[in-house]
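task queued by scheduler; priority normal; single chain, no ligands, no partner chains; default sampling; output format set to structure tokens
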Amino acid sequence: MFCLIERQVRRALGPEQTTTGLYPDNRRVRPTGRMIFYHLGELTLRIGHITDPPTVQITRHVQPHLLDLLDTDIGQTRWPPT
């Protein structure tokens, strides 16, 4: 899984395959599977109700960028799970 996630993010970044926001000093680096999972590991899903859909709570500024690179639309919640 680590390799597949890493490959998807690097492909989405394009030829340079580097991004910022993975380290506190904001340097440009090639993301690794370990870095990606570290930053996405703190995502939480707030359970919704009939009138209140579930939401993903973002805790790090780089998370939306990584989810976008992984082509993940957190606004599209599927229920029941397929």
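post-processing summary
- The longest strand covers residues 44-46.
- The beta strands are 44-46, 55-57.
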